[in-house]
UniProtKB/TrEMBL annotation:
InterPro entries: Flagellar_FlgA (IPR039246), SAF_FlgA (IPR017585). Residues 103-123 are annotated as: Disordered. The keyword S-adenosyl-L-methionine does not apply. Belongs to the FlgA family. One of its GO terms (cellular component) is periplasmic space. Pfam families: ChapFlgA. The lineage of its organism: Bacteria, Pseudomonadati, Pseudomonadota, Alphaproteobacteria, Sphingomonadales. GO terms for biological process: bacterial-type flagellum assembly. Residues 124-184 form the Flagella basal body P-ring formation protein FlgA SAF domain. It is found in: Periplasm. Residues 108-117 have a biased composition (Polar residues). This is Flagella basal body P-ring formation protein FlgA.
Length: 188
């Protein structure tokens, strides 16, 4: 009887040793609160303020812990790119638009290049050409994910075009939002 319990104790002790320690697993992921602070410091404004991040980084993300300092790029096109150069992960954080940019976009919804009266100008200038590398973006106000892709057809602002991001998969349909950038619809 004693031998039976000591074998059971040995088995349970061995099994408990094999279970992952959740505190060790949490250390393998990037601290998202610290990432929020670093983004706010780099931009010089807090989360939710004009010119700052719209919301904190999505807590559902499990980014690998970056061994060096995370790089926060300059804001471009209403978002800022945050990445770990050594590991290769990159996220885009949408920014709160400034009042002057919102006012300008409401007053002049047409692309500034489309001011002529010709048929070409009424359709819009081609911003993405077939074979061009493009940034394929999906996301909403809480998060943005982007990958590189190749445009499969020409497109002007607002056009739906096919983009191939993986050679082994079929192309996806995306909307042209600016030169070299397309967005997957449905993540509003």
């Amino acid at each position: 009887m004693k031998n039976k319990y000591s074998c059971l104790g040995f088995f349970l002790g061995s099994f408990a040793f094999l279970l992952p320690n959740t505190s060790v697993l949490a250390a393998d992921f990037q601290d998202l609160s610290a990432l929020d602070k670093q983004i706010a410091t780099s931009l010089g404004v807090p989360i939710g303020a004009e010119g700052g991040a719209v919301t904190p980084v999505d807590r559902r993300l499990h980014l690998a812990q970056c061994p060096e300092s995370v790089v926060v790029d300059k804001p471009i096109a209403g978002s800022v790119s945050v990445h770990c150069p050594s590991l290769g992960w990159r996220i885009r954080v949408p920014l709160v638009r400034t009042a002057s940019r919102v006012l300008h976009s409401r007053e002049n919804p047409q692309n500034s290049q489309n001011s002529g009266n010709s048929k070409e100008d009424s359709k819009g200038a081609i911003l993405v050409k077939r074979g061009d590398p493009v940034e394929l973006v999906a996301g909403n106000n809480s998060f943005t994910v982007s990958v590189q892709g190749i445009a499969q057809q020409d497109g002007a602002l607002g056009d739906h075009i096919r983009v191939k991001s993986d050679p082994s998969k079929p192309p996806v349909i995306a909307v042209v939002v600016e030169s070299g950038k397309v967005r997957i619809p449905g993540f509003e």
